[in-house]
Design brief:
By secondary structure, the chain is α+β, with helices and mostly antiparallel strands. The protein starts with 12 loop residues before the first strand and ends with a strand. The protein folds into three domains: 60 residues, no CATH class; 128 residues, no CATH class; 113 residues, OB fold (Dihydrolipoamide Acetyltransferase, E2P), CATH 2.40.50.140. A five-stranded antiparallel β-sheet has the order 13-12-11-14-15. Strands 3-9-10 form a three-stranded antiparallel β-sheet, covered by helices on one side. This is S1 motif domain-containing protein.
Length: 336
């Protein structure tokens, strides 16, 4: 494999050709308004010859496969084909604000856990996904994200065009809710670990004969929720801080762009930007099913509730503990 840089000459295949004008390009400058229409090309580094009757558009189409958010990608299943730098935002704020850049990675469909509504497909079909630069780590030091240049520099050291990513990944969005239609993937180790643990603790399909108490015992310790998840107050969830707002607090993002809020009165402004965090749902408004209002508070992983934190006590009612006599024990209190 080769690492490409600006100015290199590379052999590529034209996949799509679009006729563009200034009304279709959000990034066009005012000085370019009077310029004529131009053409935008979508290229592929796959230059293997196709048969004469092959439909190139169908072979290379990236959004014909529906991906399953929360599914884990195997090591070396993602190949980096392009690096797009971060984009500065024109604001009056004194702080440096920008949209993180991203890598375009190609994944063969044979490596993907697909949703049930996919039609039969070629296992060698390529799916392009977006790997944002804020999805490489669970935690970013302040100096690494203070400017777009520092985040880009870090990302360029980690990601190389033409290379395969040697670690596991996770699908964050299916792509249907993304502006450019590309599914989003992440390399955050903590989210991947939670997804794998959730798969192990997944509730069996046949729970018709189980009691309510039995069903509670097999709920996952932590959830990676999506808009289709049946959330409840008290649920432990795992996400990452996507944005901070001095008026409200920290916004926490989950699968398929589901978002919750840690209010500033609950310490939301103390959450580091882009950090992976554990939270508990403290309030939930699901009147509008498409965009439920979720209030959260941050918790430490060691404080999670559930079956994994139930401790067996070696004392029982009637035992003497120091200078007191233990009369009663329950899950919330000790009466002495």
């Amino acid at each position: 494999t080769v690492n490409y840089k600006l100015g290199d000459i590379a052999k590529a295949r034209v996949v799509k050709c679009f006729k563009m004008n200034h009304s279709q390009d959000d990034d066009i400058d005012d000085d370019d308004v009077n310029k004529e229409s131009y053409y935008s090309l979508e290229l592929s580094m796959n230059t293997v010859a196709l048969s004469v009757n092959a439909n190139i558009d169908d072979k290379m189409k990236t959004n014909s496969i529906n991906l399953k958010p929360g599914s884990v990608l195997l090591p070396k299943s993602m190949k980096i084909v392009e690096l797009v730098p971060s984009k500065e935002l024109a604001t009056e704020s004194s702080t440096n604000q920008y949209v993180p850049g991203y890598a375009v990675v190609s994944i063969k469909s044979k490596f993907l856990d697909l949703s049930d509504d996919n039609e039969a497909h070629d296992t060698n079909q390529t799916v392009n996904c977006k790997l944002p630069f804020d999805q490489l780590l669970d935690h970013y030091d302040d100096d690494l994200i203070s400017t777009s240049e520092s985040l880009d520099a870090l990302s360029m050291r980690i990601l190389k065009v033409g290379k395969k990513i040697a670690q596991k990944g996770i699908i964050l969005t299916s792509g249907s809710s993304s502006r450019n239609g590309l599914p989003v993937v992440s390399l955050r180790p903590a989210l991947i670990e939670t997804a794998q643990q959730t798969a192990k603790e997944k509730t069996p399909d046949d729970t018709s004969g189980a009691t309510d108490e039995g069903k509670k015992k097999i709920l996952p310790s932590f959830l990676l929720p999506s808009p289709s998840t049946s959330l409840y107050v008290g649920a432990n969830v795992h996400g990452y801080c996507i944005r901070q707002d001095s008026r409200y607090g920290a916004f926490v993002r989950f699968l398929d762009n589901l978002t919750g809020l840690i209010p500033k009165v609950k310490g939301g402004l103390d959450i580091p930007l882009y950090d992976t965090i554990h939270c508990k749902v403290i309030a939930l408004d699901i009147i509008d099913g498409k965009s439920p209002k979720i209030l959260l508070k941050q918790i430490s992983k060691s404080s999670k509730a559930g079956r994994n934190t139930t401790k067996k006590l070696s004392i029982k009612p009637g035992d003497m503990v120091g200078d007191v006599k233990l009369e009663d024990i329950n899950f919330a209190r000790v009466k002495v």
